Amino acid sequence: MGRMVTREFSYQKLTILVYNKVTKANEEMEITIPDAEYTSRRLENTINKVIDTNVYKMIDVLNTESFKELRGMSQEDFLKNSQPLPPRKVSAAGIEDYDE
Q1: Is the pTM of this model over 0.90?
Q2: Alpha helices in 1-100 (DSSP H)
Q3: Cα 64 to the chain's mean position, in Å?
Q4: Where exactly are the structural domains of the chain?
């Protein structure tokens, strides 16, 4: 195996209490979301994107665990599976980002 392309990912594992609209019972569910600073509204919106809101309604977050994980793939696989991006632009604050 040649060179590796690596990236460290931060994510949160949440245990949430949901109401199952089909069985009409409360259930615990584990989900994974990107690690970020969340307001209560943003957290609820993020959770609702992950769960099937036709079946479940989120009631409460019971537990949160943050994780970091180093992931990688061969440079060959990366080139096959990635897409080219435009050059990064540096803002006045010195932050590099892409134009969308």
Answers
A1: no
A2: 40-50, 75-81
A3: 14
A4: 4-71
